[in-house]
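Human: You know discrete backbone vocabularies at least as well as I do. Show me how you would write down a chain together with its backbone fold. No explanation is needed for now; the record alone will do.

Assistant:
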Amino acid sequence: MSFEQLDALYRRVIMDHYKKPRNKGVLPDGNVTIDMNNPTCGDRIRLTMKEKDGIIEDVKFEGEGCSISMASASMMTQLIKGKDINTALKLSRIFSLMVQGKDYDDEQLDLGDIEALHGVSKFPARIKCATLAWKAMEKGLLSTNE
């Protein structure tokens, strides 16, 4: 597959998650809720997770923002649901390195659709958009471990 074809595929994946977000909504029985925003562009998110015995049993998000921010939240919720906290935090570190264009070791973890956001590294102003939901997830999970 050529670079142009791969780039077009990634754009389609991002737009699919933006137009038909997964896990969007309210999680009434969640026990972790984090609100975050990106003041530079106006993106905002409310992430709600149901964590039990170190496992993210369910996760949903609400918010408004650009296609990168909302697609990233959709992809993240799909990826972390059912994972243990340590795995979710590892995925967040990998994602952060990936969107910054830095080398990362995926540690045999399936990155799923989030690989489509690899190209964000070419647009430094969009990195905060892509990482907003991930930062909310980290903040929420780290606060449950204190």
